[in-house]
Amino acid sequence: MSDAFIAPVQGHCTERFDPLRQRFASLLASGDDLGASMALTIDGEFVVDLWGGFVDEARTQAWQRDTITHVWSTTKTVTNLAALWLASRGELDLDAPVSRYWPEFAANGKSGVLVRHVLSHTSGVPGWAEPMCTEDLYDWERSAALLAAQSPWWAPGSASGYQAMTHGFLVGELIRRVGGRKTGAFVAEHLAGPLGADFHIGLDPSQFDRVARVVPPPPLPLDFSQMPADLPMMRVFTNPGPDASASWTPAWRQADLGALNGHGHARSVAQLMSIVACGGSPGGRSWLSPAVAARIFETQADGIDAVLGMPMTMGLGYGLPNATLVPYLPAGRLAYWGGWGGSLVVADADRRMCFAYMMNKMAPGLVGGPNVASLAAALYEIVGEQTRPAVQSRATTPNAPAASVAKGS
Questions:
Q1: Where are the domains positioned within the chain?
Q2: What is the DSSP secondary-structure string of 38-102?
Q3: Of 65, 122, 131, 348, which sits 20 to 30 A from 270 (CA to CA)?
Q4: Which of 288, 301, 263, 329 is nearest to 402 (CA)?
Q5: How do beta strands 334-338 and 311-314 pair?
Q6: DSSP 2-26
Q7: Tens digit of pLDDT for each residue in 20-52?
Q8: Which residues contact residue 253 at a Cβ distance below 8 angstroms, ignoring those fewer than 6 apart?
Q9: In angstroms, rounded to a whole number, what is the distance separating the alpha carbons of residues 357 and 261?
């Protein structure tokens, strides 16, 4: 690719992290990335804040400092942070039944589902039993009511099953019942607003012109036609089916989808997740209590995820290091998650460091992507991989073998 077609990387980077900047620039220069932003904080202060590339596939509009993009499941990291904020104030008991706050949810064998099960994707409610289409996701009340009425697909707490789309309604309804507002408004009032973080769950139309819409990836490497109809992966990812272009529509952008439709840039995500990286108190201001911040790193499930079919280690609201799934992250007190296509945020409490990368060209696959893997690897080459001893698991039962949850109930 000629230099004439390369939008230069802009922003700030300290000398120590120049190799990371160079790697970021090379992804844009090669065309592996179209447009992206990358940020790194230490002790809540930015040491890297970069952006570059293009908003559009025609490469006519350069990515700007305030360009935002759709971050898919990276949204979950902020939704979970809102629930943990409530827990830190004693308003949400992480070990209480969900039905304490949402009585209807106890129906059909779900009285034993705890708040921490929902946060850690071990609720047994990873998808809808009733047929759903994309437009149904815009109806909060119906989507939540259907989840409250259905049976769990396996014993709650016994296995993780990625709540790809339901997570926003499961956690979001707890936020609404306890905090009095839906997720997007709650985050804006209590987290993003006070922090000055340019992150939105439910985007106002006045902000649409700042959005770098995502470029869809190749089709998922899954042949759903060959899967049993009652396999959890099949039930979750075909009801409704994935459609990256849905994120281009005004209806999707404005909906409150706490699992799926956050819009922001790396700077805003790093601002928010620095709360986790700094033990709940970046810059000396307390957002999470020390007790709640510590619980994030307690293992809730460890094994083959019933929906993703991959080995996952789940903490309270976030993924924890797993050498098979995320080999580019070291062991230790790291909480991470990312979005379909390859966005990622890593809150590293051992180093009080938060790394975020958001882009508009989606990589293939379900989890991560080669670009973010190379960036994270470059980061940890710089800072080293020394870690503290692993924390003890809080999970009462190990993840069930994949075969035992292969069929939904």
A1: 3-405
A2: EEEEETTEEEEEEEEEBSSTTS-SB--TT-EEE-GGGHHHHHHHHHHHHHHTTSS-TTSBGGGT-
A3: 122
A4: 301
A5: unpaired
A6: -GGG-PPPEEEE-GGGHHHHHHHHH
A7: 999 999 999 999 999 999 999 999 999 999 999
A8: 70, 202, 203, 205, 208, 211, 247, 261, 263
A9: 16
Residues 51-60 have pLDDT tens digits of 999 999 999 9
Q: Could you tell me the two tokens for 36? A: 């992206």
The architecture that CATH gives domain 3-405 is 3-Layer(aba) Sandwich (3.40)
Indicate the helix (H) or strand (E) that contains 345.
strand 344-348
Strands 211-212, 68-70: pairing kind: parallel
In which residue are the tokens 């990387």 written? 9
CA distance 265 to 356: 9
Mean pLDDT of the chain: 92
C-alpha to C-alpha distances, 305 to 106, 138, 287, nearest whole angstrom: 24, 27, 31
Q: How is 276-331 classified by DSSP, letter by letter?
A: HHTTT-GGG--SS-HHHHHHTTS-SEEEE-TTT-SEEEE-SSSB---TTT-TTS-S
- Using CA atoms, how far apart are residues 333 and 46, in angstroms rounded to an integer? 20
Which residues partner with 131 through β-bridges? none
